[in-house]
Every structure is written in structure tokens, then in C-alpha cells.
Amino acid sequence: MTMQGVIPVVNTFFGAQVDSTSATFVVFGVPFDKTSTYRQGAKQGPAAIRAASQAIESYCLQEEIAADAALLPIADIGDVNIESGTVQSMLRGVESVVSQIIQSERIPVLLGGEHTLTLAAVRALPRDIVLLQFDAHMDLRDKFNGQEFSHACVQRRIVEQLGPDHLIQIGIRAVSKEEIEYANKQEITFYTCNAIRKEGATTIAHRINDAIPPGPPIYISIDMDVLDPAYAPAVGNPEAGGLTTSELLTILGVIAPRAMIFDITEVAPQYDQGITAIAAARIVTSFLCLQAKRRGLGQ
Ligand code: MN
Ligand code: MN
Fold this sequence. Notes:
The protein has 9 helices and 11 strands. The chain has helices at about 45-55, 85-105, 115-125, 155-160, 175-185, 195-200, 200-210, 245-255, 275-295; strands at about 5, 25-30, 60, 65-70, 75-80, 105-110, 130-135, 165-170, 190, 220-225, 260-265. Helix 3 packs parallel to helix 4. The site of one manganese (II) ion has 6 residues, from loops.
């Protein structure tokens, strides 16, 4: 089937086909970083993650998955066509592509791009969705640099749309007073990096999983700055004291099988020698394999 509003790319994720007709997972890129406030470059993220995917093993052994991501029914339909280059046109484009993928009962996998894209995807999803946001930051500012649609405000806009009990934040360690006051007032659930380090990733993962009743669909959104800059230095807003890649994969091992949509954002590849894009490609691959196990694919 043909998806409207995307431009095909030559180097796809894992060399996947462009046609989504027989795909369960539909990958697409969002090369946009206009509202980035510290270090721009996330618009190069999709290409860097795709390039890294060509260089890693597609087979997964994590959590006894034993699946080969390269054998899964994946399509990479290309990048969203962001016509005017404005944040509003990016939001419209992403919402439209996610809608088409969801309506055809496939799993969207978004490669960012700045984190603002998550708002657009949420707009295309059922209202009972539960968003698991992996991030050093809360992204709960009302406005940032005078803008209300920005990567620093994206979760605030999502809470306004879905309500505070639809958001769980994981890996938090860098907040403003405004954000923590808002989060406490709205009773938003969040797990700091310290709490995860103290109690262990497995314990926290099961607590999160048990807190979400069966039923509502789950959205996993990964801002790569959730990882410590030692593991992911090439992000827009690096913040020391973060998760290890292993801790993140451990948490995903518990909850990723339940997700109906996945995004990975904020890779700004020019700030390292490829380590961040390689980590991002591994995280996407693990997500695909965890989903595959649940669906009995790629064994
Ligand atoms: Mn962040
Ligand atoms: Mn973020």
C-alpha cells in the first residue's frame, strides 16, 4: 500500500523494503530539529540511525528472544515530507503518516528528529493511550523561548490533551522548578534515574508494567538523552548521571512487548563518532525483536 506524505530514502533501516503492503512494522524518519534550543542536528538522526542499522547484528538474544530483526516484516517508507519546514507542518505531516499506519493496523516506528514529533503521533492515537517517556527531562514547560510547540514543552501539550494519568516518565534527572511543581500538582508518575539505580531496572520495570492495567494501548517514546552521555553523547541536550544502555534495554525487555507504537528521538549525530546512532539502532532492533516474540514472528 502507498503511504501519503513521505519521501522514500535509498538506505533504509536494515535495508528493509519501502513497500508496506506485507509489513507488520512501518519505520519512517522525521528529519526535523527547528525548535532545538542547545545543539541542533537531530534532523540528521534518521539517516544516522539507518546507517548504523546496517553495521550491527540483526539477531537478538536479549531476554531469550532469539529473533532475527532482518527477517521480520519491516518496511521503511522513508521520511515525512515536511513541506514548509515549520513546526506546525512537521506536526501535521507526522500525524497524517501515523494515522495511515494505525488505520492499516501496523506498528509505527518513528526515527527522530527532535522530541516534538511525539505530540503529533499522540494526536493520531486513541485517547486511552498510555505514554511511557524515557527522558532526562520532563519536557513539561508551558513555553520555552516564547514557543509552546517545542521539544521542551511537548509533554505539557500531551498532558493537556490526554490528562496527567496517561503519562509515565522514566529516567528523569534535569528539571526546572516550573516543571516539578506542575508534575507534582498534576500527580504525574515519574521515576528518577536515582530511583532506578537504587532499586534496580528490573524492579522498576515490573512496577511500571504492573501499574498499567491490561487494555489501554502503550506508546514508548525514547529521548536518547535518557542515557548517560557516556553511552549517548550525541544528543541535543546531554545531561550527566543517566541510565546505561543495559538498564534501558532491561526496562524495555519487560514493557516493549505491550507497545503499539515506538519512537526514538534527539540523536544529533555530528557530536560523536557514531556511538549514539549505534545505540539507537540497537534499541530499535531490540524493540522489534521483543514485539516479534510476542507476535510469533522471525523465529
Ligand atoms: Mn531530553
Ligand atoms: Mn525530550
